[in-house]
């Protein structure tokens, strides 16, 4: 019999193992952060006494993001993925969430559509391979702004408050959070190493394209010898143009989908946090 239970500390090793098999690059700390932020919002499917799958959610008041839906290979096609989705949606509905979003791989889109998710746009992924490149003009610096001022800026730019999550993320990456200021804050970005050795940039939120460009001009030369990744909402055309100019290349995208009320908040989003938390 399959049962869905809340993810506990003892389940995190299993969650990390599944994400490793999928090569999603998550760290143990990513799952710990999600569980800490909402101790009841991440789930494990149990098939009898064995763990069979996971799903995670992060809630920013009326808006939530659903991610990390993975069922163990040998347990697939038995309805466990559907059960995990139904369970997490019911949980979020009960919390009064009005909009749920996710980044779906194309093979799973029909499952999400059946559950009421609608297509929003392509969630583009870019990678920048290591290589010698000229040092570009900088301008931004490791951020000395408080996490409170970054989260206030973030709220002002995207229109809802994801401060609780961002404060935790920034606290874990104080030395690799960058910002651009000119009397006032113009852009910020968190960069963090992933389990696959890449460095991911995101969130990257900017006042305008010039600020985004200047921020990336500081960050990218620091990582000429590393793989850099960034996720960009397809509807932010300026962001696409900028990352291509900074030598990023297209990778297979996923599909941003939403359930409930559609909210459009991407105007200042030049880099998403990641495909599991939005
Ligand atoms: C997607 C996934 C969680 C589905 O789990 P599952 O337990 O096999 O799903 P179910 O048995 O409940 O089947 C529900 C639907 O999943 C979808 N599905 C089936 N196989 C799939 C696959 N290999 N990849 C993606 N989706 C698949 C189908 O739409 C299926 O509906 P159908 O049986 O009517 O065709 C599972 O295939 C998986 O872990 N894939 C790898 C990780 C991944 O891609 N996760 C989705 C990230 S957005």
UniProtKB/TrEMBL annotation:
Gene3D superfamilies: 3.40.630.30, 3.40.630.90. GO terms for molecular function: acyltransferase activity, transferring groups other than amino-acyl groups. It comes from the Bacteria. Residues 2-132 form the N-acetyltransferase domain. CDD domains: NAT_SF. This is N-acetyltransferase domain-containing protein. InterPro entries: Acyl/Acetyltrans_Enzymes (IPR052729), Acyl_CoA_acyltransferase (IPR016181), GNAT_dom (IPR000182), YitH/HolE_GNAT (IPR041496). SUPFAM superfamilies: Acyl-CoA N-acyltransferases (Nat). PROSITE patterns: GNAT (PS51186).
């Amino acid at each position: 019999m399959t049962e869905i239970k809340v993810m506990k500390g003892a389940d995190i090793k299993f969650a990390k193992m599944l994400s490793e098999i999928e090569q999603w690059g998550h760290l143990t700390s990513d799952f710990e952060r999600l569980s800490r932020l909402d101790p009841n919002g991440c789930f494990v499917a149990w098939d009898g006494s064995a763990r069979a799958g996971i799903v995670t959610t992060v809630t920013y008041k009326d808006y939530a993001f659903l991610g990390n839906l993975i069922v163990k290979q040998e347990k697939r096609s038995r309805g466990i993925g559907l059960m995990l989705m139904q369970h997490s949606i019911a949980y979020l509905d009960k919390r009064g969430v009005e909009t749920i979003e996710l980044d779906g791989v194309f093979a799973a889109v029909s499952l999400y559509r059946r559950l009421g998710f609608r297509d929003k746009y392509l969630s583009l992924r870019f990678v920048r391979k290591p290589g010698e490149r000229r040092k570009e003009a900088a301008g931004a610096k490791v951020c000395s702004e408080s996490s409170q001022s970054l989260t206030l800026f973030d709220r002002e730019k995207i229109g809802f408050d994801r401060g609780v999550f961002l404060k935790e993320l920034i606290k874990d990456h104080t030395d690799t959070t960058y910002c651009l200021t000119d009397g006032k804050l113009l852009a910020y970005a968190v960069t963090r190493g992933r389990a696959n050795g890449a460095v991911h940039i995101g969130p990257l939120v900017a006042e305008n394209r010039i600020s985004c460009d200047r921020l990336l001009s500081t960050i990218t030369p620091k990582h000429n010898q590393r793989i850099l990744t960034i996720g960009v909402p397809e509807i932010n055309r300026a962001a696409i143009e900028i990352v291509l100019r900074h030598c990023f290349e297209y990778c297979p995208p996923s599909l941003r989908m939403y359930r409930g009320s559609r909210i459009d908040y991407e105007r200042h989003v030049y880099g998403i946090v990641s495909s599991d938390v939005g």
